[in-house]
Amino acid sequence: MLNPLSVQINSERLWTSLEALGQIGADEQGGITRLSLTDEELTGRQFVMSLMADAGLEVRQDEAGNLIGVLAGEDPDAAVIATGSHIDTVIQGGRFDGALGVLAGIEVLRTIKEQGIRHARSLEVICFTDEEGVRFGAGYLGSRAMSGGWDDQWLELKDANGFSLKEVMENAGVSPGTVALASRSRQSIQAYVELHIEQGRVLEALGTSVGIATAIYGHCWLEVTVRGRADHAGTTPMKLRQDPLTATAAQLLAIEQIAVEHGGVATIGTLKLAPGAINVIPGEVVYSVDLRHEEAEKLLQMEIAIREALTGIVEEKSLSLSIIATDSAPPVRSSQMIMDTLAESCRINELPEHYMVCGAGHDAVAMNELTDIGLILVRSRDGISHHPLEWSSPEDCEAGANVLLHTLIKLSIESNK
Known about the structure:
The protein folds into two domains: about 5-215 and about 330-415, Aminopeptidase (3-Layer(aba) Sandwich), CATH 3.40.630; about 220-330, Alpha-Beta Plaits, CATH 3.30.70.360. About 35% of the residues lie in helices and about 20% in strands. The chain is built from eleven helices and 16 strands. It has helices at about 10-20, 40-55, 100-115, 140-145, 165-170, 200-205, 245-260, 295-315, 335-350, 365, 395-415, and strands at about 60, 65-70, 80-85, 125-130, 190-195, 210-215, 220-225, 230, 265, 270-275, 280, 285-295, 320-330, 330-335, 355-360, 370-380. Strands 1, 2, 3, 4, 5, 6, 14, 15 and 16 form a nine-stranded mixed sheet that branches. Strands 7, 9, 10, 12 and 13 form a five-stranded antiparallel sheet that branches. Helix 9 (about 335-350) crosses helix 11. The chain is elongated. The chain starts with 10 loop residues before the first helix and ends with a helix. This is Zn-dependent hydrolase. Keywords: Hydrolase, Metal-binding, Zinc. GO terms for molecular function: hydrolase activity, acting on carbon-nitrogen (but not peptide) bonds, in linear amidines; metal ion binding. Its cofactor is Zn(2+).
């Protein structure tokens, strides 16, 4: 009888699939743009479904557009063990973010099936709809729907070209009116384990391939609008100006300082001026703020402090201010039982056990509302992510996938309904 501990994934097959998916949405600069539910991402979905079918999995799409590949277990009534991630990207992103978790999940289930490893619980690999939130300003849409957190108001969100989420879902063959039916019960999924690149430099500094996440930062996204008065750049004296950009400059420094004081992180990812001409004092500035922290209370305190600081700055300059929270997710803690299993899997693969906090958000955040979660992180070269230079070596991807393999095997062997 085959010893499950001796099994390894087919690293060449995994790398080939990563390269193939990386060509979908690729540009001449080496970046990949597969925004959620665009033609490029839909083409990527077809590729993922074909891989699932080739792996011998039962393939279906749920009401939220999540793609699910199932490897049936011996106990059809037992809660399943799930893995997965996403294939949508940021603009000019990299080939590993999200994609590694989906493709490694397929490879792991394929290996288990090929090697005839018996397992009581069914195994699922899930390719979630719109994790990044780039196109419509709200992320984790598919995993939120699965975990019971869907909000029909999201259907009215629009992308940069004026298309609503409702419209693009219809175009993709997803019925907007039934998305909430993708929700699953806590009794249906025993555990969710995600494999993802680190998107940071911690593992590289340690010289190790794989890390075990103990927690994932929560986030709060804000859209800030500062309004003043647009005037001629030459005829308006400095003392008569109502320039929202100078106030914004002070606000950005305040945001940075508040993040440092609270032990969190804050990022201004977008900034737009109107009317946006070289010889016109802007009348309006709109920018985004991405706040993150591993503790829910401190994340809230950071948001409150920033709102107060921004308000005080515009009042001093007699400007108007609007702050809208566009998206948020609480910090989550990994399951101790799953972390213990991940540690055992690291030992099987002769890898050190390194525990760390994950600063990037993943579908595991939403799935934590539904079941116990675990997160495996794979080393990122120079910590670069959301960029064409994003890179994880074939050896590191293989190491992470093998940790996932042995974790899923152990979690699925016994049903214990």
